[in-house]
Structures are given as C-alpha cells and as structure tokens.
C-alpha cells in the first residue's frame, strides 16, 4: 500500500491492520505511522523522476533571450497560499537590495496569480520578477538548466516533484523546514529555512547563490542515485521481495 496522507478514518485503520507493508513519500509520514503503532515494513521513497529527460542543458539560450546577466531564481508550482509565494516575493524584495541584477521566474497558474502580480507591482519589482504562467513539461528542463536556484517556500508538501526535477538538472534548492523535508539536512544541494520568514528565506537564497557551479555535477549525481526511476524501481523491488518473503 502506498500512503500519501495519514488520517484517522476507518479506512486508514483497516489498511494499517491488514497490510504487510507500506511505502510513504517522506520520513514524516513514516514517523506518524510509528506513532500510530504500525510495526510492519515501511519504505520511505519518492515516486521518482525521469533523470534522462531532466538533465543539464547549459546552451538553452533562456538567459540570453531574456537579457539576464545576473542570477536567475526559479519557482515552479501552483499559485496558492500553501506554496508560500507571497513570502518568496517579500524575500526577493530584500534580496534585490543586495543584488539588483537578480531575476525571478515564476512558473505556474493559480487563484493567487493576480494578487501576486499586484504585490510585485506594489514593490516595484516588475523588472526583476516575471510570471511565465503554465509551461509545457517538455520545456521545463531548459528553465531548470538556466536557473541558478529553485526556491520552494511551501507551508506544506508531500514530496514535491519539482525538487527532484531541479536537482536532476544540477540545480540547488532552497526549501522550508516543513515535515516533508525531514532528514535531508545532509543531502547535496539543499538549504532549509524557516516557514513564512522572508528575511531567513533571503539569507538562504543568498547563501545558495554562493555555491560553486561545480556543485551541479554532485547535485545531479545525488538525484540520479536517489530519484531516478531505475533507483526508485530497485528500492521498490527490494522492498516487495523482502516483504513477500516474510
């Protein structure tokens, strides 16, 4: 059984009782299972990403096409409160005070789009922030490759695919210290910051921009080793064989 959310419904209690093994997408869910008394096999593993499709392409021309000479930050996701994009724009305002040549691309649609555009205008950041709307999936690897950093200031997540996609393209990520990212403190290419804190988010972004570009190879290797479909399939295969043998 694959578990995304752990609630208290009768169905959840039934599944926990009859299952011989569960797979979950992050350690926080695994901890909640343990707290509920589940003592059978649990595999913590994301669903994976196509690391061949999402690979580094430095000659995509996106920075040149958009006349970007400084760092390029990227947000990819729906535009709703749970994603923390307001906090990102507030942090970006502070960042521009230190790096006027920094640019932010926001990819995605959602109910907050117009209010976020208005917030950007009110802070006079329209020359630094571009709302690109929805981008076709096949075009995303080029945007990741052109970026110096993916920023995901979420209030809550399961295990975001965009993080795996970005790291597969060698891009470091700034994320919030929510339960979904429990246990990644020592992982390559991650910086964690407090939720809903524009100043700390700005500091995390600034620190990430100081990372050497050579780190891209190490970040991509980490993604291939942990998120590629081959790696994920192997983990599931071992888990199924181990569980069935019992």
Give a summary of the structure in a few sentences.
The protein has 246 residues and is an alpha/beta fold.
Question: Which terms would index this structure?
Answer:
single chain, 246 residues, alpha/beta, 6-stranded parallel β-sheet, 3-stranded parallel β-sheet, 10 helices, 15% strand
Task: Give a description of the structure.
The chain is an alpha/beta fold and 246 residues long. Helices cover 41% and strands 15% of the residues. The chain contains ten helices and nine strands. It has helices at 10-18, 27-35, 62-65, 85-96, 113-122, 140-146, 161-168, 198-209, 215-227, 229-245, and strands spanning 2-3, 21-24, 41-44, 72-76, 103-107, 129-133, 149-152, 173-176, 190-193. It has a six-stranded parallel sheet with strand order 6-5-4-7-8-9, with helices on both faces. A three-stranded parallel sheet has the order 1-2-3, with helices on both faces. Strand 7, helix 7 and strand 8 (173-176) form a beta-alpha-beta unit. Helix 9 (215-227) runs parallel beside helix 10 (229-245). The longest helix has 17 residues, at 229-245. The radius of gyration is 19 Å and the shape is globular. The model has no long low-confidence stretch (mean pLDDT 89).
